[in-house]
Amino acid sequence: MKGRLIVFEGGEGGGKTTQLARSQQWLQASGWLAKLQAQGQIQQLITTREPGGTPIGQKIRHLLLDHTDSEVVQDRTELLLYAADRAQHVEAFLRPHLAAGALILCDRYVDSTIAYQGYGRGLDLSLIHQLNHLATHGLQSDITLWLDLDPAIGLARTDRRATRDRIEQADLSFHQRVHQGFMTLAAQSPERMIRIDANQPEATVAAQIQATLQQFLHQWFGAAIE
Ligand code: T5A
Residue 95 CB: number of other CB atoms within 10 A? Predict the structure, then answer.
């Protein structure tokens, strides 16, 4: 049994968390999950996120996002903390579950570091690629769904919340550079990174994602499902 890793990516307020939950519900309600399990193709469906997919990662997440001290988190510190969170997540969570045959829905992965710390903060991209490799030991997603939304719209959505985390507080130009980063990544690897138009009603976005997932599930397990 070989698990699969499906990653949801995008800028702030793009709807990843909402759509990841909807995809989980759809996989259960549509019967796909039950079929794959009955055929011995998939062991279980699990969801996770970065940062914060492990107990150690939760502590790192707190340092990264809920940091309220007056001390400024330096850009390279931020980069190393995201890499440390990922190293723990990959070894302690993703790899064992994939080896056991899980279908994993993951909120953010390596592309976020390239977009936020590389394009957003302006840190050296080749250094980030090396760090991503160190943290993942080469573990790549099977597909990445990029929820593409104008950063101004995404930030307006997160503005409705009572508080904004440290990265959401960065100015619009930072988030525009992050968006540029995701656009570049999607253009470089269109077969791995699928663009989803996130500037539509929630149900329309969900339908687009379901159609994409359906296509990949057929590709991966098709013969056994027909
Ligand atoms: N980060 C992360 C890095 O800098 N480097 C890294 O390597 C990694 C891994 C993570 C932060 O860390 C940064 C990126 C982030 O800044 P987080 O709390 O996980 O922090 O934050 P986000 O992933 O950005 O989560 P958000 O909740 O801000 O955005 P989502 O998940 O994309 O959006 P969601 O689903 O919560 O929706 C936001 C709001 O919009 C509404 C929802 O109801 C919600 O109110 N909404 C819609 N409204 C209208 N139309 C739609 N289609 C809508 N879909 C959702």
Answer: 16
Sorted by where each starts, the structural domains of the chain and their CATH numbers stand as 4-221 (3.40.50.300)
Closest ligand 1 atom, CA of 178?
4
Cβ(154) – ligand 1 distance below 6 Å? no
Nearest CA owner, ligand 1 atom 36? 17
Decide: 14 in ligand 1 pocket, CB within 6 A. yes
For ligand 1, mutation pick of 48, 49, 147, 167 (most atoms within 8 Å of CB)? 167
Give the whole-number percent of the chain exceeding pLDDT 70.
Answer: 97
Q: Could you identify the residue written with the tokens 């992965």?
A: 109
Contacts of 63 (CB under 8 A, 6+ apart): 73, 81
What pLDDT, in 10s, does the model give residues 34-81? Answer: 999 999 999 999 999 999 999 999 999 999 988 677 788 999 999 999
**pLDDT, average across residues 143-149:** 98
How far, in Å, is the centroid of ligand 1 from the Cα of 147?
10
- In tens, the pLDDT along 87-117 reads 999 999 999 999 999 999 999 999 999 999 9
Q: Is the CB of 16 within 6 Å of ligand 1?
A: yes
Q: What pLDDT sits at residue 163?
A: 74
CA atoms within a 13 Å half-sphere pointing along the CA-CB vector of 107: 21
User: What are the C-alpha distances in Å from 156 to residues 42, 164, 172, 213?
Assistant: 38, 11, 11, 28
Mutation to probe ligand 1, out of 23, 79, 116 (largest number of atoms < 8 A from CB): 116
